[in-house]
UniProtKB/TrEMBL annotation:
The record marks 19, 77, 161 as: Important for substrate specificity. Belongs to the Maf family. YceF subfamily. The active site is at residue 76. Its main location: cytoplasm. GO terms for biological process: nucleotide metabolic process. It is an enzyme of class 3 (hydrolase). One of its GO terms (cellular component) is cytoplasm. Transmembrane segments: none annotated. This is 7-methyl-GTP pyrophosphatase. Its cofactor is a divalent metal cation. It catalyses: N(7)-methyl-GTP + H2O = N(7)-methyl-GMP + diphosphate + H(+).
Length: 202
């Protein structure tokens, strides 16, 4: 295990997601946010897990160009339903079609995470799989949910941390935060391995 990091080590979340920011806030560790601009299009014949891992690592490495002294968290999530990748719907109509295609089916969420130590040039990464089954609900319920919560900026068109939990029949994962987009169980292990102290009285 590497030696402890200096007390003032910069910790950066390489993401513009308010959901990941809220999750990282739970750890009560000071951090910055730098959102990298990347083309997130999957490569030809790339598996969902490979896409998520590649993008999580690419985000962290891109931020490292601006912050070569920092510990950087990169994350990405790819959802898969019966062989088809699900992106962010962007609007109500697309979200309704997405939920209609998912109801009664099992969806796989690949939540990739990496911690990149820009000073040591070391990378830790993992893909956390979450399997979710949606309830077979009628169109009017799906439509009503979307109008209430408007989850148009999340892959899968449902916020499990909010009212979207009522759409779900089951969730299988060893990390309940992975579905929201930042697997905290894995992240805290990576931060400790990088030498960051999590329980410091301030």
């Amino acid at each position: 295990m590497p030696s402890s990091l200096p007390a003032k080590t910069r910790l950066i979340l390489a993401s513009s997601s308010p959901y990941r920011r809220a999750l990282l806030d739970r750890l009560r560790i000071p951090f910055e946010i730098i959102a990298p601009a990347l083309d997130e299009t999957p490569l030809p014949n790339e598996t969902p897990a490979a896409t998520a891992l590649r993008l999580a690592q690419a985000k962290a490495r891109k931020v490292a160009l601006q912050a070569p002294d920092a510990l950087i968290i990169g994350a990405d999530q790819v959802a898969l339903c019966e062989g088809r990748q699900l992106g962010k719907p962007g609007n109500h109509a697309n979200a309704l079609v997405q939920l209609q295609s998912m109801r009664g089916r099992m969806i796989e969420f690949h939540s990739a995470l990496c911690v990149y130590d820009a000073r040591r040039k070391t990378m830790q990464s993992a893909d956390i799989l979450t399997q979710v089954r949606l309830r077979d609900l009628p169109d009017e319920e799906l439509d009503a949910y979307l109008r209430i919560e408007q989850p148009y900026d999340v892959a899968g068109s449902a916020k499990a941390e909010g009212l979207g939990i009522a759409l779900l029949e089951s969730v299988q994962s060893h990390d309940p935060t992975a579905l929201i987009g930042l697997p905290l169980i894995e992240l805290t292990q990576m931060l400790r391995a990088a030498g960051l102290k999590l329980f410091t009285v301030r």
